[in-house]
Amino acid sequence: MKRQWSLILAIIFAIIIAIFAVINVEPVEVDYLFGKAEWPLVLIILGSVFMGGFIIASAGVVRILTIHRRLKVAEKENAKLITELETLKDEKEKNVKDLDNKKEEMDHEPTSGA
Predict the structure, then answer these.
(1) Which of 13, 34, 67, 104 has the fewest Cβ atoms within 10 angstroms?
(2) For residues 63-74, average pLDDT
(3) Residue 37: beta bridge partners?
């Protein structure tokens, strides 16, 4: 449901930008570091929107990659801990069996004295 709302809001935002851009079609002067040029305002608006979207998408990709990297580290640590847990369980079972065997040996030993 969240994706549907995001898509609806994106479409509404795109429509508003498109209407705003079409209304502003007169040429404007753009100053570059190396010169000046006249461009239709609609192209300036759309170019700015696309550049902003690209920057936001890039930040999202970086965040996703970071999260994937952290997930892989966590999965490796989890696998290591599972292996350690299994080893400890095996050691515990062995120790319990050893103690049971010792107890049985002590129970079967003849008592001295009385």
Answers:
(1) 34
(2) 97
(3) 30
